[in-house]
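Inverse folding, one chain.
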C-alpha cells in the first residue's frame, strides 16, 4: 500500500515511486513531519525533535517541563501563536479576537483515488488505482475549527499533492488569516533554492541561491501569478545538477496571489510554506462553512533537477492537462498578431489564410482587433461583438470562408477586462475593479472587470456565449493584459474586503469552466501578455499557454529552459516570428519545442522560406509525440554562459531521440563532444542524416564529436536518431 498507518507507532508512511514521507501523531495529538526524502522501506525513522538551543522557546506544560517545544519540533502544519515562532501555515482569528491557533490530531482516513477541490482546479486521477489519499483531521478545540490535511500519493511517479480543508464547527464566525497549501519541515538548511523570476517578455529565468538563516522566498501580489515570479520553487542539494543530487520541486496549482517562503531557524532547519499570499488575503468563515486551499504539487528526485522536471512533465501531461487535446495533435496555427497587430479585416485575414493553407498550416487565429471599434489598445474591451467596418458581413460568413479553405478558425478574447471607451463600460461603470472614492489606476488603457461578482460574470459570459454559439470556432485565446490593484468589490462587506483577490480568481475559474463545459471541443490557449499567468491551474483549463510575448528565438531559449523546470513542452505556445536576430531555421528549431505555430505575414515569404516552412511543418508532425510527450534533457543551458544551448527529447519507449543545438557565439570551434542522455544502452540507433548506426552505449559513453557542426552565431541544427 502506498499509504499505511502503523498503529503501534501512530505513524503514517506515504510512498511514491521515489519518495517516502512520514507523519507521526505525537503525544498531545501534535502532528510531526518526521521525514521527506528518498524512498525507504523501513519505518524505523528516528524522531528528531531538535531541542538544541531551545531554552527560550516555550514548552507545552501538558507534556512535561522541557520535554517538547512546538518551536523546535518538526511540525506537520505549523500554526500561529502557540509556541511555534517560525513562519506559519495557519492563522485563524476567532470570535474572541485573538489569533492563537493550535491544531491537534482527531481522526484520519485512507482511501483509493483522489478527491477534487470544489471551485478550484486540481490534478486528477484517470482511475482510482493510480493514487491513494490520506486525510488527517486535526482540530483547534478552542476556536472550533477542523483542519483536514489532504495528501495524495501517486505510485507511478515521485509525486505527492497536498491541500487543506478548514471547517468552522463552532457557532460563531471565524476569520482565516493564513491557510497555506503546503508546509514542510526539513531537518537541514543545506539546500539551494531555485525559483523562476522575470518580467513581461522575459519570463521564468532560472535563479539559484543558497538558503541562509531567516526568511527568503518569492510571491505575487499582482492579482495573477505574474511574469515576475512563478508559483514554483525547488530545494536542491548544494551541487545538484541536471543529473545528480536531490531535488524537491514544489508548484502551486493557483493563478492568484501566492507566496512561497522558506525560513531557516536557529536549529539550522528549514520550513517551507507555499499557498495563497497571506499579505493580501483573509477569509470569513461562518458556522458550518468550509474553506478549501489550492493544491500544492511536490515532486522528489534523487537523480537531479532534470529528473524532477521530467516527473512534473509526465505528471502534468497525464494528470493535469485534460480534455480533447490532452493527447490529440493540436493544429499548427498562424496568428495575426505580430503580422498585422490591430490592422486586420476580412480580406487581409482571408489572404493570410490562403497563403498559410498552401504551406500546410492548419488553423487561422484572428487575434486582437476584431470587435467593438478597436483599432488600437485604447478601446472596446467588453464589447464582444464584431467590428462591422472590418467584417462587413459579420463574423459567420467570414468564418465559413476560412473553413471552406480547409482551415480551422481561432479567435481572441480578453474577458476579464473593460475599456473605459466601451459601450459595456458606459452601461456599467460600476463593473470595473475600483476602491470606493478612488479613481482606479489604468493599465494598457484598461480597467479590470470585477469578475468576483456573479452578475458581472454573467454579463460578460452572455456576450462570449453569443459569439461562440453562433459561429463555428475551433480555438480560443484568452488574454489578460495588466495586473490588478484598487482591490475591492462593491458587493463585499467591510469585513470581507480582503477576500477580493481570491474571489476574483475563483470568478476567473468559474468563467473558464463555463467555456470548457459548454464548448469542450474548442482548443483553449491561455495568455497574459505572454506568460503572466503560466501556472498549473491554467493548465487545468487550457492545455497550452502562450509562453511569452517575446518571440525572438534566442531570448526564447532562456524563457523555454526556465519554463521547462516544471511545465511540459506540450504546454508552451511557441511560434516562428519575423524577429530577425536568428535565422529562419533556428526560429523554427526553437519553436518546435512547444505547441508550434507561426506569427508573421505569411504572404511575404520568399520561395526559399516557403519550402523551409513545408519542411518545418513536416517536422512538427513527425516529432509531435516525441516532443510533446517525450522526456526532456536540458543538455546545455543558455543560463550557463557557454557557446551553445542544447536540449534533447527521448521518446517514452526510448526508440527515438531528437537533439537540437543552437550556437550562441560568433566563432565556436571549440571541442564539443556531445554525450547523449536517456538512451537505452542496448538499442542501436541510426542517425537519420548520416545514416550511421551507433549503440545507445556508444552515444552515451563516448558521444558524438559535433565541433564542426554548429559554429556560427545563432545557427542551429537537429539530430534525429531512431532505433534500428
Ligand atoms: C497580449 C498577448 C499578445 C496579443 C496581444 C493583443 O500582449 O500576449 O499575444 O494577443 O495581447 O493585444
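Residues assigned per position:
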Amino acid at each position: 500500500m502506498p499509504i499505511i498507518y502503523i498503529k503501534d507507532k501512530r505513524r503514517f508512511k506515504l510512498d511514491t515511486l521515489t519518495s517516502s514521507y512520514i507523519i507521526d501523531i505525537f503525544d498531545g495529538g501534535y502532528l510531526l513531519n518526521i521525514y521527506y526524502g528518498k524512498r525507504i522501506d523501513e519505518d524505523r525513522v528516528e524522531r528528531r525533535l531538535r531541542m538544541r538551543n531551545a531554552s527560550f522557546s516555550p514548552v507545552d506544560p501538558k507534556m512535561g517541563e522541557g520535554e517538547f517545544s512546538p518551536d523546535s519540533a518538526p511540525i506537520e502544519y505549523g500554526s500561529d501563536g502557540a509556541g511555534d515562532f517560525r513562519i506559519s501555515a495557519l492563522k485563524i482569528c476567532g470570535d474572541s479576537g485573538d489569533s492563537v491557533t493550535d491544531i491537534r490530531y482527531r481522526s484520519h482516513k485512507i482511501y483509493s483515488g483522489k478527491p477534487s477541490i470544489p471551485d478550484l482546479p486540481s490534478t486528477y486521477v484517470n482511475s482510482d488505482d493510480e493514487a491513494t489519499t490520506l486525510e488527517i483531521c486535526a482540530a483547534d478545540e478552542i476556536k472550533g475549527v477542523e483542519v483536514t490535511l489532504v495528501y495524495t500519493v501517486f505510485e507511478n511517479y515521485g509525486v505527492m499533492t497536498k491541500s487543506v480543508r478548514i471547517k468552522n464547527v463552532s457557532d460563531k464566525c471565524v476569520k482565516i488569516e493564513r491557510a497555506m497549501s503546503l508546509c514542510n519541515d526539513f531537518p537541514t538548511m543545506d539546500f539551494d533554492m531555485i525559483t523562476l523570476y522575470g518580467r513581461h517578455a522575459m519570463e521564468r529565468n532560472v535563479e539559484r541561491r543558497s538558503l541562509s538563516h531567516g526568511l527568503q522566498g518569492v510571491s505575487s501580489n499582482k492579482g495573477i501569478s505574474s511574469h515576475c515570479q512563478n508559483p514554483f520553487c525547488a530545494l536542491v542539494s548544494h551541487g545538484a545538477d541536471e543529473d545528480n543530487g536531490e531535488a524537491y520541486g514544489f508548484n502551486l496549482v493557483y493563478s492568484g496571489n501566492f507566496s512561497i517562503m522558506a525560513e531557516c531557524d536557529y536549529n539550522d532547519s528549514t520550513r517551507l510554506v507555499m499557498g495563497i499570499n497571506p499579505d493580501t488575503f483573509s477569509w470569513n468563515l461562518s458556522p458550518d462553512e468550509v474553506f478549501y486551499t489550492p493544491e500544492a504539487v511536490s515532486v522528489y528526485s534523487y537523480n537531479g533537477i532534470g529528473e524532477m522536471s521530467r516527473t512534473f512533465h509526465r505528471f502534468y501531461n497525464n494528470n493535469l492537462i485534460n480534455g480533447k487535446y490532452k493527447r490529440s495533435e493540436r493544429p499548427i496555427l498562424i496568428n495575426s498578431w505580430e503580422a498585422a497587430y490591430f490592422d486586420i479585416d476580412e480580406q487581409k485575414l482571408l489572404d493570410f489564410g490562403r497563403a498559410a493553407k498552401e504551406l500546410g498550416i492548419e488553423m487561422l487565429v484572428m487575434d486582437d482587433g476584431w470587435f467593438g471599434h478597436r483599432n488600437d489598445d485604447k478601446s472596446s474591451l467588453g464589447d464582444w461583438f464584431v467590428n462591422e467596418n472590418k467584417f462587413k458581413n459579420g463574423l459567420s460568413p467570414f468564418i465559413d470562408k476560412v473553413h471552406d479553405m480547409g482551415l480551422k478558425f481561432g479567435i481572441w478574447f480578453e474577458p476579464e477586462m473593460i475599456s473605459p471607451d466601451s459601450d459595456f463600460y458606459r452601461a456599467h461603470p460600476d463593473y470595473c475593479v475600483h476602491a470606493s472614492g478612488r479613481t482606479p489606476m489604468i493599465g494598457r488603457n484598461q480597467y479590470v472587470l470585477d469578475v468576483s461578482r456573479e452578475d458581472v460574470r454573467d454579463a460578460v459570459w452572455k456576450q462570449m456565449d453569443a459569439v461562440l454559439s453562433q459561429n463555428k470556432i475551433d480555438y480560443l485565446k484568452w488574454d489578460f493584459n495588466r495586473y490588478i490593484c484598487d482591490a475591492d468589490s462593491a458587493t463585499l462587506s467591510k469585513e470581507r474586503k480582503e477576500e477580493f483577490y481570491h474571489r476574483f480568481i475563483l470568478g476567473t475559474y468559474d468563467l473558464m469552466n463555463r467555456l470548457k463545459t459548454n464548448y469542450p471541443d474548442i482548443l483553449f490557449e491561455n495568455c497574459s501578455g505572454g506568460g503572466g499567468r503560466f501556472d498549473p491551474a491554467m493548465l487545468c483549463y487550457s492545455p497550452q499557454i502562450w509562453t511569452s510575448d517575446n518571440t525572438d528565438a534566442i531570448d526564447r531559449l532562456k524563457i523555454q529552459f526556465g519554463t521547462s523546470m516544471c511545465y511540459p513542452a506540450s504546454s508552451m505556445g511557441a511560434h516562428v516570428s519575423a524577429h530577425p536576430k536568428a535565422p529562419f531555421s533556428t526560429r523554427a528549431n526553437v519553436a518546435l519545442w512547444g505547441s508550434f505555430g507561426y506569427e508573421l505575414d505569411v504572404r511575404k515569404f520568399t520561395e526559399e522560406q516557403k519550402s523551409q516552412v513545408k519542411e518545418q511543418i513536416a517536422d512538427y508532425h513527425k516529432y509531435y509525440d516525441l516532443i510533446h510527450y517525450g522526456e526532456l534533457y536540458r543538455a546545455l543551458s543558455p543560463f550557463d554562459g557557454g557557446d551553445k544551448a542544447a536540449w534533447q527529447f527521448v521518446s517514452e519507449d526510448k526508440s527515438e531521440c531528437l537533439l537540437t543545438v543552437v550556437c550562441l557565439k560568433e566563432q565556436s570551434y571549440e571541442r564539443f563532444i556531445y554525450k547523449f542522455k536517456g538512451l537505452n544502452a542496448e538499442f542501436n540507433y541510426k542517425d537519420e542524416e548520416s545514416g550511421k548506426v551507433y549503440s545507445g552505449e556508444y552515444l552515451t559513453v563516448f558521444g558524438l564529436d559535433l565541433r564542426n557542426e554548429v559554429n556560427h552565431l545563432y545557427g542551429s541544427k537537429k539530430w534525429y536518431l531512431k532505433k534500428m
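The chain is about 20% helix and 30% strand. The chain has a mean pLDDT of 96.
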